[in-house]
């Protein structure tokens, strides 16, 4: 009986064995001569600290961006919503609105507290944000008021009651000229401006738009006159108004109307008129007049 040898290989088998041997030798050499020990990469602590600083700075900027900003404002124009967001109680807001309804004005932080009875702690927060008109914060020397008090129509400088005041919408040129600082030219300017609108003035604040009237003269006018029969206007809803509707309002042109609608979209609607002050190119000094034509939801 003949036995088949187990050590007899074909050409392909021999080639496979030869290739396996080469691979084994190669891996043994790599294992023997290559150093696989791990070495820690050097850390650039200065660069890492710089990166951390940048990240912290970006975080702070994002936090500031998302934090509601409160801009300086005239406390005489605080609304229910504005007062609530400032931390005032309903009773404190009501006292302020009742005071303003009597056609009286707050001219200092101290007077604001006397009228509203807000706490010292809240006043400390709000007072730095108060922005009063220039003629309140930087009044003329007292001698100017002495001259006014000697005027025949007003012997002493004391504000008249609402009942004593003349309706600005029916006042004649002669009535207006009784005010110190008002001559024929200025009285004519006032009446011409009033006659531009059917029904006359809406509010005394519109006196700011009359050429030649200084803040001092305006306060003298409002001491003797008040708009008792205001012109009726159909107020436009700020949160639904179109661009064409907005440009019908004094001091708003198409560019400002565009930015108002853009800001309204970003905010998903305005919550208060004060937010208009953040609109690009908005005429902030005229916001009191612009508010006469607007309403909110």
UniProtKB/TrEMBL annotation:
| Matching SUPFAM superfamilies | RuvA domain 2-like
Name of the protein in its database record: Helix-hairpin-helix protein
Task: Kindly list the organism's lineage.
Answer: Bacteria, Pseudomonadati, Bacteroidota, Flavobacteriia, Flavobacteriales
């Amino acid at each position: 009986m003949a036995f088949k040898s187990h050590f007899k290989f074909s050409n392909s088998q021999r080639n496979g064995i030869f290739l396996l041997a080469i691979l084994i030798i190669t891996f043994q050499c790599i294992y023997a001569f290559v150093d696989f020990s791990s070495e820690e990469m050097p850390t650039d602590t200065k660069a890492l600290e710089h990166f951390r600083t940048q990240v912290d700075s970006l975080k702070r900027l994002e936090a500031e961006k998302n934090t509601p900003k409160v801009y300086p404002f005239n406390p005489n124009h605080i609304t229910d919503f504005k007062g609530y967001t400032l931390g005032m109680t309903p009773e404190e807001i009501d006292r302020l609105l009742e005071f303003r309804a009597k056609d009286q004005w707050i001219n200092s932080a101290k007077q604001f507290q006397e009228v509203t009875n807000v706490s010292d702690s809240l006043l400390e927060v709000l007072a730095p944000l108060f922005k009063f008109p220039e003629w309140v914060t930087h009044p003329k020397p007292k001698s100017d008021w002495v001259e006014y008090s000697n005027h025949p129509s007003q012997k002493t400088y004391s504000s008249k009651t609402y009942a004593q005041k003349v309706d600005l919408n029916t006042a004649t040129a002669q009535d207006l000229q009784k005010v110190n600082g008002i001559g024929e030219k200025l009285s004519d300017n006032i009446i011409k401006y009033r006659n531009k609108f059917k029904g006359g003035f809406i509010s005394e604040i519109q006196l700011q738009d009359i050429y030649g009237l200084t803040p001092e003269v305006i306060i003298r006018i409002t001491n003797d006159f008040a708009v008792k029969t205001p012109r009726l206007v159909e107020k436009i809803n700020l949160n639904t108004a179109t661009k064409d509707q907005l440009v019908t309002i004094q001091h708003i042109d198409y560019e400002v109307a565009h930015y108002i609608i853009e800001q309204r979209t970003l905010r998903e609607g305005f919550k208060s008129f004060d937010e208009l002050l953040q609109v690009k190119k908005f005429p902030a000094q005229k916001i009191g007049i612009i508010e006469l034509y607007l309403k909110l939801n």
